[in-house]
Structures are given as C-alpha cells and as structure tokens.
C-alpha cells in the first residue's frame, strides 16, 4: 500500500509531519512518548483497508516542528490544547473535517483534548493504555509515583531533566521500554529503537518533550478542571483499550474511569501486553480497533 509523507503548516507556524495511507473515511493515529508515528507501522496498514489512515507526529516529536518552550508555568506551547489544534488543522488541510482519533499514551491525552475542544471533528475516539490525566494526578500513590516517576521528573521547572537526558539520550530512551513487555525484556525491536533515537536525541526534542510533561502538570490540569467544573465531557463514542499487564490495566477500572468523562457510550477491552500494545501485539490491537471503527467510526 502506497504511503505518502505530508508536512503541513499550522496557524501558529508549527509544521506537522504525517504519513497517509489508503482512501475513504479518515482515521488519525497519535503516538506516545518517547515515540513517533513509527509506532503504528504494523497497525496502520490493517486499518487502511477502506479508510484513509493518517499517522502524525505530535509537535515536539518525530519529524514535526519543535518550537522552543516559553518561560513560566503558564506556557501553552506544549499544552494538549495547542497539540490538539495542530492535529485538527492537519486533518482539515488534508480535506477531512470529521475523522476518528486513535491515540496511545501522550497521543491519547491529545486525543482526549481534541474530542473536548473540537467535538464536531471527532467521530469516535480510542485511547490506548491511559486514564485521564486529571484522574492520574488526583490519585497519586507510591505505586503510581514509582511507575510514572518520569511524569514528575520531566515536569520540573528546571533545566535539570533536559541536561541529564542530553548527556545520555540513548540510555534514557531505552529505559522507557526496558522490562515493559509481557514476561520482561524489550517490547520493540532494535531497529525501531534506533528510529526513535534518531528523532529524539537532539536538544530541541528533549526540551520539547520535557515541556510536554510540564504542560501536563500545569496548564493541562487547569483546562481539565475547567471542563469538569463546567460539565464538559466527550460526546463521541469511546473505546478504552489497555494492556492486561500494564500499570493502567492492573491499577484502574479503566472503563468506569472513562465513563465519568464521557457523555456517549464507552467500550473497553484489554490486550495481552504491557504498555506498548501496538508494537507488542499489533495484530490483536489492529483487530480490536477495526471492530470499533466498523461499529462507531469509519467503516471499512
């Protein structure tokens, strides 16, 4: 299947890079940290039968622009609101005003914000191995702080995280994957790891991804609380998919947690995997996603 690489400039000058496959109703795929659109390489072709699949890099990641973060707590440069707006503009530039969104990890958090801020654009939403950011921060315990220590490390309002990562980017990148596979070991290939490192191991990318986590702990929480106080919820049909061996799968009633944030139907399913299900179990992940799209989103 032919794949086309596109690059689109957003209203604020940020350029988003993506790969486009297939034809038909559109599905947007958003990756997690510290990855890129490469995470979907084994899933996207299966979903592109009868659909247009757009696998995009978030701002600050992969081949997309990495604008310098602004100063201070209220910096919106890497807010999920800004990142969601990027993706809506990308899809509009490709001719799609309405589309399905599938996000893993950070991409799921961008997808959540996209569904809240642009409900007219999101036909359905699938979130992979996350519960809402606000819920996570309001339920911190020792297990969460240990498993997700990088949330608090990367969010420090200091140059320290970036400087330490820049000193050994390969060591840091590998640490995000090591042991996060059913039975232990690496959930991704050395080839895939090298692809991630090639885009990640620059001062601009490290600074951008740290800013992503700072925003999650500050301005993103402000936006999430404002939505909760106003009673704003996800209108689109929602699929929550998690790894049976992941922290999320072990620690939360995932469907019930998402139901509190959604006005429409919420479905749930688990994959026999840890966190990186699209790479650990691509065929099973693609099959569950395709069934959801057939029922609620872009039918093949």
Task: Produce a short descriptive summary.
The protein is of the alpha/beta class.
The 3D shape can be described as globular
Mean pLDDT across all amino acids: 95
CATH topology: Rossmann fold
**Main β sheet profile:** 8 strands, mixed
Rg calc: 17 Å
Record field, number of beta strands: 8
Low-confidence segments, ≥5 residues, pLDDT <50?
Answer: none
Instruction: Specify the CATH class.
Output: Alpha Beta
Secondary-structure class: alpha/beta
- The run of helices and strands is EEEHEHEHEHHHHHHHHEHHEHH
CATH architecture: 3-Layer(aba) Sandwich
How many helical elements? Answer: 15
The domain tally reads 1
Strand order, sheet with most strands: 1-2-4-3-5-6-7-8
Instruction: State the end-to-end CA separation.
Output: 15 Å
Fraction of residues in H or I helices: 40-55%
Tell me the CATH superfamily: Alpha/Beta hydrolase fold, catalytic domain
Tell me what portion of residues adopts beta-strand conformation.
15-25%
